[in-house]
Amino acid sequence: MKVTALFIAAIVLLDWSLQAVCGDAVYNLIEPGISLGEIHIGQKEDSVKALPGMSKYLMSRDIVVQYSDDGDVTEIMTISHYFKTNHGITTRSSATAFRKLFPSAQLTCTIDRGVSGISTSRIYDNIDSGIAFSTDTLSSHGRKDSVNIITVHRKNTPVSIFGEIIDCAKPIVP
Asked: How far is the CA of 68 from the CAs of 40, 93, 133, in angstroms?
């Protein structure tokens, strides 16, 4: 059983490594307002789920796809550093690097007080281009965990906001 799991993990790593080395630009490219990898804004839910390997990404939560009531993709989010823009922006990039590439990005801060803790976000959204970069921090049980998220969304439409919008300059009060 352990050998099988290790073998599968090795194949997945090899698959990712080969794609990175071979430069399969379509597979891991973030195109603002257009696509993240092989998922495109406006694509139908059935065709997204039919993409090879998509169940792996959707189950691992590396990619989250939001759909309209009609089943069209409206937003694609990732926490995976595997995806990148033509200019090399990934989830491992800094907000400063994102703002240099997208200087008209607007900052919005949010807070969401949930059952599992308090989640805060600093979202830089370049509405015209259809891309947002956010740093989300979850404070729970005396511990803080942060993750960067890149969201591709419709051009000229702001990214979806979850939680209450707060003043970015003020300290966060639990």
From this structure: 13, 29, 21
